[in-house]
Amino acid sequence: PPLIRREDYRPFDWLVPEIRLDFTLGLERTLVVATLKVERNPNGEPASEIRLNGDGLTPLDVTVDGHASNSWRMEGSDLLVDLPGDAHEIRFATEIAPVANSQLMGLYASNGMLCTQCEAEGFRRITFFPDRPDVLSTYTVRMEGPKDAFPVLLSNGNRIAAGGGEDGTHWAEWHDPWPKPSYLFALVAGDLVARKDRFTTMSGREVDLAIWVRAEDLDRTGHAMESLIKSMKWDEQVFGREYDLDQFNIVAVGDFNMGAMENKGLNVFNTKYVLADPETATDGDYDGIEGVIAHEYFHNWSGNRVTCRDWFQLSLKEGFTVLRDQLFSQDMQGEAVKRIEDVRLLRSVQFPEDSGPLAHPIRPDSFREIGNFYTSTVYNKGAEVIRMMRTMAGPERFREGTDLYFGRHDGEAATCEDFIRAMEDGAGLDLAQFRLWYSQAGTPKVEVSLAHEGEAATLTLRQTVPVTPGQPDKQPMPIPLRLALLDRETGRHNGEQLIVLDKPEQVHRFEGFAAKPVLSVNRGFSAPVAIERVIDSDDLVFLAKNDDDAFARYEAMQELIVGHLVAVVEGGLDERVQDAARSSIAEVMRVIVTDAALDDSMRGELMMLPGQTYIAEQLTVADPGAIHAAREALKGWLAKSLEMELVALHERASGISSGMDRAARGARKVKTQALVFLAAGNPELAERMAAAQYDAADTMTDRQGALMVLAGLAGPQRTHKLIDFYNRFQGDALVIDKWFSLQAGSLHPHVIEHVHALAQHPDFNIKNPNRVRSLYMAFTGTPLGFHAADGEGYRMIADLILALDPINASTAARFVPPLGRWRRIEPGRAALMRGELERIAAHADLSRDTFEQVTRSLG
Ligand code: B3K
Ligand code: ZN
């Protein structure tokens, strides 16, 4: 497969101002007649033919300007049609087989319904078209099909006509007035019911809202609808963005490659991000739904009204939209906890990506398969980069920048450079050097030290940007650091400052400190960097107890624990030093567990130990077994030292009534956190308490939390509750997904055998991405399973990739990165991981997706 380069971008030679699609729908066979109005692009090259992308299609009945045409040919899978003049109408038909489409790209069948997924290059599996985001057309879509199988017919925009035939068929015609690229096209046909509501926009437009699901799921759509209405309101208030059609439809689908898709006026969602009630969805699921509904809705402006010129610009819409959904969720649920959650995700997924063989800038320079670049780097680091602009400009000036961006580029396919320029002009920032954040990969490292002499504190900051594949030399980048100097006695400070570190080294002097203050730096995680600071553990303890920035408080706790665990793993630590470190961690943890002034949501965050992958990131070469052992040992020690406090916390939290308010949610969070610790210190007690929590549970949050703890324990309650859970929820796909992933992601020493057995379970289905992910993605996080020293876990994932690749390439390729981490793992396991990658690479018929990921990972 060829390498596509950002530098090679050329405008398309033709414009396609209008397209009409006529579908004759069937699950086995669907006929598509496409009619394209094409005109020469004044900005393109004069060409005698037009290239229409296809993927696995055969053109039928090609006509040009109403006459049957022979002047076309195929080149690979593309259709090339001769066009002598400046404007033509091209028409052709294609025939597709939705039930046979296991890739779930293009038009496919799910549970008897038909639906589409076109981003990034799925439209070419439906019909021939210049399938690139800079070709914008207005779409008119007519669908016709059997009324009993497909009573509901949906597409983008507004429904303009509908009718029925005598023969049991019916039809509907939709028109979308907003020009859009093909990746935003969508069609849905099925036996669905809707939760309906209305929204009046700020200028008074009445919008009909509908969330379409299978009849049995209707009563689980309330939260999604509330989230949608909140998102629409928030985007008006915070970004001044108003909805622009008379209808907004969301459809939930059980077979879907990712979370959801922002098709214009017709968002298609994974059921996971729509359906919720307290018995079947956790508090985390509720938040996920709110965030993803918002994300897709926000794309209506950041993505649809202003789209991307080419796929290298993906972060233009994704990074920006992730930031928008993060800010929304911060406003809905509280800023501190949301920020901590976002940073945890960034560090556990994006940091490892940025330090491994798949590292790429948020605006990549080349790819073979764009599907491989829907990454945490493009999404989450992309959001961090725009968040830094917001931090430097302040929210008001940032808003001026986004207003200018939307105003300037409405209706266009834009670039990251366009966004940066709008920020410079609208927000008044100088981003000349800041552009490096778009072109350089790798997580910058910032070394921080604070000295004190006389009345002055001197801060020294030093940055390095690590070497990444294809980028041996790096320039220093502007790194905005929010910081404060805390008085050691009072814990107070005289205000926060923003320092932008834009040189390799900078020194800042602060006067008026008779005693050495304690430095709180990168507050709110103002820059996505790794801070390395010289700091006493006493100061970390002080910050963990006193810092008024919630994130910084969390961070101090993490740093304290990571420092200890890294020292343990690196070995040679003398017993006394080790005990002293553990005692100081236990001391802070006691304050966190018992502090009456802390709210439980925040307490739950502060109690969370740094994750396995984040700890591994701190080591040049990691031994997953050793990290796991050290982490469990610390957990056990903390549980033993704080057993009474943890039991009391669990008891108090159990007394808080169920409900969806902040207090009840916080209580549920700390309850399970307490069990997680106790399981490592006193497994018999934890088993009893978890079983009781399971039995008393009136929410999925409590039930899942209890079962997660039991799944990692050896006692009899493990089996009892797993059987009960299965019987209780059999047939509810989203809950059975949880049942799979709780077992596959557990700390149980026999997790590999469990996963082998689950793969044979009648409910396992390799064609359903949710089920595949719930079994195997959860497994790739297990130190004792995936990283089993004999390589059996690696082999299992490689076998999965090979089996899944011909069925669903984009899902298969997502399992490659865990194996690609080999360079950072101890030599024994590294060789085994590499061996599995080589075994995959040796297969001749790999998809473009898997081929690219495997070769880059071996690189
Ligand atoms: N834009 C889609 C992602 C499409 C992924 C295609 N492989 C969802 C989102 O980010 O909102
Ligand atoms: Zn998105």
UniProtKB/TrEMBL annotation:
SUPFAM superfamilies hit by this protein: Leukotriene A4 hydrolase N-terminal domain, Metalloproteases ('zincins'), catalytic domain
Cofactor: Zn(2+)
Any one Gene Ontology molecular-function term assigned to this protein's record: aminopeptidase activity
Pfam families, per the entry: DUF3458 (PF11940), DUF3458_C (PF17432), Peptidase_M1 (PF01433), Peptidase_M1_N (PF17900)
Catalytic activity, reaction form: Release of an N-terminal amino acid, Xaa-|-Yaa- from a peptide, amide or arylamide. Xaa is preferably Ala, but may be most amino acids including Pro (slow action). When a terminal hydrophobic residue is followed by a prolyl residue, the two may be released as an intact Xaa-Pro dipeptide
Domain Aminopeptidase N-like N-terminal: 89-184
Catalytic activity, EC: 3.4.11.2
UniProt cross-references to PANTHER family, sorted A to Z: PUROMYCIN-SENSITIVE AMINOPEPTIDASE
Entry similarity comment: Belongs to the peptidase M1 family.
Name of this protein: Aminopeptidase N
Organism name: Tsuneonella deserti
Gene: pepN
